[in-house]
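Let's practice the habit of predicting before peeking. Look at the sequence and jot down your guess about where helices and strands might fall. Then scroll down.
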Amino acid sequence: MSASIPTEAANAKPEPLPRRDDAPMYDLIELLFFAYRDFVGDADRLLESYDFGRAHHRVLYFVSRRPGLTIAELLEILRITKQSLNRVLRELIEKNFIEARAGALDRRQRELYATPDGERLALRLAEAQTRRFAVALNTLGPGGRESATGFLSAMIDPQDSGGTAAPGGPTNGARRT
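Done guessing? Here is the structure:
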């Protein structure tokens, strides 16, 4: 069975649970599964009409939010293989949602930009998901957004160097330096 688990994962020692009760938090795990299912489901229905999937959505999201993102940076953010990215990126380029340009400083690098069609689709996807956030945050009342932001930020691995847009990170299409 361990033959299918990467060596580093098989040899990694599990981190101790940061609480006294060692029982798994099945209630929260289940809520997160269902919340994620419905959150991405809103976008999935829209993506179907383009014959796109979740990988296309992730690529389009980060490229539209960070114009000029390089392929290497995108691979680091998504933590996927170059082979997986190439298929999705090729489809997005062929259907005129993303364009790749030679880098301004290094012409061997490819910088990625959403086309006007790509920007429109990215916005439609974000609006669908924003509606779900708005409904959920309204049920939490004042301070709900800050609590949700704090919780989700705390769920991100503190050693993450994948350029995740944590609070204070790029949020308006700004590029990382």
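How did you do? The beta strands are 69-70, 98-102, 110-114.
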